[in-house]
């Protein structure tokens, strides 16, 4: 079957680093997305990984290991505005989403 | 605004009502989607349209009826809903082919309609 697992909630401190993990089992694999969704707002694109390895974009980095069915989103220098849900989505024959990880950033 | 506009933002309806959700995109995308987002659950794909043709219906109850008159507009007609249908309904659009910047490969979502069925 197809499945995406992410932790339900995480809490981190402003200025710190947090890693949000995502494991997946899907039919086919073309790429993996990370989206950010603030409460009551649209999910917005953060990253798209196709090949193994780490891709960095500012304070956010995303890692992919296709052989392990594993990805993580790394957020550095956390800010209060980073409090949001982070959705992992895998593009295979279909695009399926995880339930999201709610990140709380505390002062 | 993300480029995908949904109206209304909030909707409260009785189980015997008929209402419609509207989605509009002017990004030049050729695929449009309806997703249901319930609390603490993954986004559930409901319908997919490519070039105005419905290509996917994920076993959605007939009380939800989509309509795609052109590649920029998508509707979701609702009738005789149940309280468990209360959720955030998200519209999204995308390009069918992967060209250009990676940001173009993913979906652009609207802000959603928060639906409450009473």
Detailed description of the structure:
The complex is a heterodimer of chains A (107) and B (118). Chain A is mainly beta. Chain A is 0% helix and 59% strand. In chain A, a hairpin with a 2-residue loop joins strand 6 and strand 7. In chain B, the strands form 2 sheets. In chain B, strands 2, 4, 5, 6, 9, 10 and 11 form a 7-stranded mixed β-sheet that branches. In chain B, 0% of the residues lie in helices and 54% in strands. The mean pLDDT of chain B is 88. Chain B is globular and about 40 Å long. Chain B starts with a strand and ends with a strand. Chain B contains no helices and 11 strands. Classes of the chains: A mainly beta (107), B mainly beta (118). The interface between A and B is medium-sized, with 23 and 20 residues.
Q: What are the main properties of this structure?
A:
heterodimer, A: 107 residues, mainly beta, 6-stranded mixed β-sheet, 5-stranded antiparallel β-sheet, 59% strand, B: 118 residues, 7-stranded mixed β-sheet, 4-stranded antiparallel β-sheet, 54% strand, globular
Short overview:
Chain A is mainly beta.
| Cα distance spanning the termini of chain B | 29 Å
Beta-strand residue percentage of chain A: over 45%
Counting H and I runs of at least 4 residues, what is the number of helices of chain A? 0
Low-confidence stretches of chain B: none
* Proportion of residues in helical segments of chain A: under 10%
Helix/strand-derived category of chain A reads mainly beta
Provide mean pLDDT of chain A, rounded.
94
The coarse silhouette of chain B is: globular
- Rg on CA atoms of chain B, Å: 14 Å
Q: Radius of gyration of chain A from the CA trace?
A: 13 Å
Characterize the main sheet of chain A: 6 strands, mixed
Order of helices and strands of chain B: EEEEEEEEEEE
The number of helical elements of chain B comes to: 0
Strand content of chain B: over 45%
In whole angstroms, how far apart are the ends of chain A?
Answer: 41 Å
Order of helices and strands of chain A: EEEEEEEEEEE
Task: Please report the two chains with the greatest interface, counting residues with C-beta closer than 8 angstroms to the partner's C-beta.
Answer: A-B, 23 and 20 residues
Oligomer: heterodimer
Which residues of chain A sit in consecutive blocks of at least 5 with pLDDT less than 50? none
